[in-house]
Amino acid sequence: MAHRTLASASIFAPGLLRGALAESLKKLDPRLLWRNPVMLAVEIASATTLAAFAYSLVGTATEPAWFTGTVSAWLWLTVLFSTFAEALAEGRGKARAASLRQTRTTVTAKRLAAPDRVDAYTVVSAEALRQGDYILVEPGELIAGDGEVTAGAALVNEAPVTGESAPVVRESGGDRSAVTGGTTVIANTIVVRITANPGETFLDRMIALIEGAKRRKTPNETALEVLLISLTLVFLLVCVNLGPLSAYSATASGQGKPVSLTVLAALFVCLAPTTIAALLPAIGIAGMDRLFRKNVIALSGRAIEAAGDVNVLLLDKTGTITHGNREAVAFVPVGGQAEEEVARVALIASLADETPEGRSVVSLARQRFDLAGDGTPEGATVIPFSAATRLSGLDLDGEPYRKGAADAVVAFAGGLGGSVPRDLDNKVAAIAHAGATPLVVCRGPEILGAVNLKDIVKSGIQERFRKLGSMGIKTVMITGDNPLTAAAIAAEAEVDDFLAEARPEDKLRLIKEHQEAGLMVAMTGDGTNDAPALAQADVAVAMNTGTQAAREAANIIDLDSNPTKLLDIVEIGKQILMTRGNLTTFSIANDIAKYFAIVPASLAAIYPQLGVLNVMGLGSPRSAILSAVIFNALIIPLLVPLALRGTGFKPMPAERLLIRNLLLYGVGGMLAPFVGIKIIDLGLGLLLRFAQGNIVP
Amino acid sequence: MDLLAWLQTGLVFGVLLLTIKPLGVYMAKVYGGRRTLLSPLLVPCENLLYRLGGVDADEEMGWQRYAVAMLLFNLAGLATLFALLCLQHLLPLNPRNLPPFTWQLALNTAASFVTNTNWQAYSGETAASYFIQVAGLTVQNFVAAASGMAVAIALIRGFARRRTALIGNFWVDLSRGVLYILLPFSLLAALALVSQGVIQNFSPYRSIPLLQPSAVDTPLGQATVTEATLPMGPVASQEAIKMLGTNGGGFFNANSAHPFENPTPLSHFLEILLMLLIPAAFTHTFGLMVGNARQGWTLLAIMLLLLMASFVLLHWAEVGGTAPLARVGIAGGNLEGKEIRFSLAATSLFEAVTTATSCGAVAAMHDSLTPLGGLVPLSLMLLGEVVFGGVGAGLATMLAFAVIAVFIAGLMIGRTPEYLGKKIEVLEMWMAMVVVLAAGAVVLAFSAIAMTTISAVAATANGGAHGLSEILYAFASMANNNGSAFAGLNAGLDFYTLLGAVAMLIGRFVPAVAMLAMAGSLAAKKYVPPSLGTLPTDKAPFALWLVLVILIVGALTFFPALALGPIADHLTMAGVR
Question: Radius of gyration over alpha carbons of chain A, in Å?
Fold first, then answer.
């Protein structure tokens, strides 16, 4: 719904591609490439072959210049493809950051001398605002910094931040008091207490995050790099080892020459896990970007990955599992009354009730019995709900119509001399047992029946919980309802567990208990009283509509304020890890075929009998080596779309997922290069034959 | 394979499988400090040791202290053995008045026995006195093995414990390993071996008049040999621990091919069994200590699978013989350098087991194996000694492989990887990679150095691809602490004794410290209970993946070197052009 402003541009939009190309050349700087040691090693190998090429032009080298030159070119391309993938992943974020930055330029603010004196202010630049300052924002003005509304209520356009064009209400007190710098007040005037210094505001943090400037490697990413660096070091040793071993063998067999530096460098680059190393930065950045496109801002990459590990999901009932409001679903007559009569009385008692619950009674009555009624009738006295009476309704033509909690209505009717129908208790209890709320209605002393007010579980939510269950994630519903109601709703929504009559401190305790047991806990929250629990949870998603306290305690912010987003976040977290794992397996599995191409080719002159290892039947030793190098380079851009989109994800138990991915990326990774290298070799064979006599001596 | 071969193999593995459970339970009790059958007898000995050493047995150590204790103990062992070897001529029980070891050879030998490698650049009967054999080498056979077992136990504790910095007390683990496990079982084994005719005495070497005097050429002209010298010695006591502790250093140069070390088919069977006994039971000890026996059985299954496959390949290659043998009409397989009395299959099984475990005792001449047959022991070592491997060290290395396999597989299912409820993070990955790759890196680096050193190349007996295999094998054997010799290489050359000593020490202690660091980090972590989203590590898919990881890491590291060695050798011999 809210993605329209963000998601339209394709990854391969020409503008983004051009920008990425320029950026990828800059990233070849070894000082920048240092962050990706495997690719730095590849760059050094490329430089070595370039030097060998230069030497072969002037001196007498073991390999012809055309061969060394071509190998060198493709090794350089390998590095370039890697930096290109990273630049491409960053491109979209950069574009969005640029548009955000525009909103930040030259904003002024009306700083109040005192929070309660709205008439005395000085106009200052946004840069001059500090934490604790109070500012006045009038209609049409930009809010100069992050803060909390301390007085008034206003309609605010948050489109620059959320991409959502419909304005939202921000008011003092309660859970919707937070405002974001860079958004515009459309109607009404508010006083805002500034909560962030310039440079530390939400917008600033968001820009930094999107640009990837502050992107730190996650622990998982670092651990994977350890694997890749270790393998790279060993493969470096393998190639260093092959030099002396082939020199000895050439002497011992009396034929052939030691493997040349060019071929050793080619072998090294082919063996090093370049595919995954090249795409590793892009995978993380693209994952963040996928979240942005779902209007979710992760304040660290760590938070997204933690989401993939979550074992327990704490979900607020209201708004997440059920629609925010209860709805009338049935009229239950008592004492032999007609159902339509109950509906009529309930309708009249609700005519003045503007709450969603009251309106749902009106609409049910219309729907079931075609009873009309809208607004307060002429001459009626409205009796609003009060905590003391726990009743509401109206007096019409001298007759009181009331609805309310069973005991309150019984007391009211009893006071007027009415009696309690014998089946009332049972029917009220039955409704409560089913997890709904009974609302008893009366006309004067006469109790007619009850309205069944039910929490409506969001459609399709069970399906999502089942998916989570199959991933091994336990769902826990948190509600202030009594255990009976909670149990019924929990059963209907198919959550695994529930916490009834929960207070904020219960949430915190529940999170701590789960964490003690070694589990990772995710939760969503919006209120200030959620903040401690959010701070404790491993993955804490705050609604953007929530309070500043909640937003500061969280590590993920959902701009759409849609609590079911947590499921998307979990999925993307898993996808990032899976993409890394799958490409690692693919990259390492590739090496087997490359060995079968390069080893017989590079040693053929020493031991022609090793030709039996040339199972692909590659044309000539040099075309075999070139084919492996070209395949190794080309596979990077071919896999860029996969790295940016993430590998497919279907929730299923771990073991099945492993088998599926091993077959796809392990076995596939073993076989694909055999085919790929053979095809490239066939192409090269044609090319070389064509070029024969021109450049090949 | 013929029926007899299957029966012999079946018997070995049948008996082995029967021992795993009781021995695994027993070892778990011993290291857990619980009461065992032997406690009444051994607890007083144990306490006496602690009192003498000033050790507080109840005080546990963090990983750094554990590692320092382990290193200091082994350093002391290295220094002592080095001194004994250099001072052999001054020590008692030297009936043949053998001269001291040169310092190079002493260093190599001391490093070799301290690291549980037992690479022998000397021959026992002509270089080592009874005192050296008993007080120097046999003592190290016990404590080096127990030291390796202690490191493995500490690593297992790392997985089993939660939120603690402590991984046990090295002195306690060391003492218990020797007192409760190695001593009683080698005592039984020694008696069994003596019953088969393995000698145990301190007699001087015997001279036996030859029934048929024979003429030999000497530099001074023809001479007639009328008598033979039979070396004697306390063989059985060393033989038992040599096999049980996967040490492998023979009393005699011919090792288990010598009739005084391995006289009968039953002793041959027993020696194979002894090599496998502790490494196999360790998998069950591991399963018990981490609270899930299936985890142990899974690793055992992987080891058995790899060992059986290796044995079948080795035996197939030897029965098939070589093209040159076929050309001269010799059928019945390649018998050169084999113990014919015990059948080809029994010999192949011994050689597969001795390189699968890091024992390194030999009952055949590995240099005489067919190229493909020789590829099997070489590969078993190059895989990092994880197919049972050394006592303790083998399991610990396997666990490091499991950590790597879990890491990649964990990512593939979209979770921060966890093994046995412990999250695998940056430090674990570094340490696992060090454990898995250290020995391989040493092999690659040192064999490359050898190839560029003229004297080192000249020390090979055969040259060509086979010569390359000889050098590769030597460093594979030393760096992986196996100690078996391909032979055919003049191992006494200073180049090999000194570089070899470095290879053995790196191959042993760098991974050991890494294992302890991993243990410390794991022990401090909290336990993550398994859920549907957790990858089960005790089922077939993961087991197969682990096998693949082991094979692929090994293949990727050594394929070029093996292509220039055994593979080229084989193809040349087979006449492929």
Answer: 34
